[in-house]
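Support reply, case 0932

Customer input (verbatim):
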Amino acid sequence: MNFTKGSHVSVDLLPGLSVVVPVFNEEDVLPLFAERLRPVLDGLGESYEVLTVDDGSRDATAAVLERMRRDWPQLRVVRLRRNAGHQNALTAGLQRARGRYVVSIDVDLQDPPEVIADMLVLAETEQLDVVHGVRTDRSTDSPFKRWTAGLYYRLIRRVVGASVPDNAGDFRLLSRTAVDALTELPEHLPVYRLLVPWLGLPSGEVPYARERRAAGRSKYPLAKMIRLALDSITGFSAAPLRVATWLGSAGIVLCLVLGVAVSAAYLWGTVVPGWTSMFVALVFLGALQLLCLGLLGEYVARIFTSLQGRPAYVVTFDSAVTARRPAGASS
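Our regenerated output:
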């Protein structure tokens, strides 16, 4: 019988499927999510675990999860001490998932849990390491959401490459090979919708229609969407640095042209005292310098974060660890 390294737990006893669910202030939607997800997983004929990562929620999410855990033996709860962000919460779940396949899904029910069965069938029949859930119908999203999402994917595919599936978010299935490869990457600001295609593993797609949020409010406002786009670009491409270089070159050329024009005007005696041209030139060059410094600052910030070596998240509770601890043992 095979055993995992450093453990007395048989590999055969590990679940065949892990479902990782990042959660932040979702007390209203959690019961609805469980009502949809549990029948799907129970009907797969596969051993499974549901690993919910409470990303520092400030509402009654923790209490709701504890009530659910008493009635659902396959439910695990990992609680982070502070809000670390959706991608870092996903990292915490991936690093603790034990299944042969791992599915990541959001709790808001916009990604239908019923699609998990199709993902698993496709992965097993075609021997795939990655199965992306692709949103073919986003009519439930607002026009602004659809426009910004389309702009994001067009920009990312232009900068990073065509390997990024269009309209594929963080609803996906990963094999154990893919999960191990992801968790070994030294990423401090991971963006999994770009990291997963970057691995180059055999992959497929399952289309689905995006549904309306079942309850609560979106945890991805415009500010977080902009942050995700910025992390996506600066984490996978040096194109912004090249933009800064081209803008600087354009600024130098413009200054040379203005210098020639001013010199010609002086020689022809048509110089009129004024401040307009000087003001415009100073403002343009100042804005250009600030833009270039800002782009450089984004990369310097990533280097600074990496050098600090701080963990991306801090776990304060893991129900699986608590369950394994002998009675009377101190924490």
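We compared this against your earlier run and they match. Two observations from our side: The beta strands are 17-23, 48-54, 75-80, 101-104, 130-137, 168-175, 203-209, 315-318. The two ends are 32 Å apart (CA to CA). Please reopen the case if you see a mismatch on your end.
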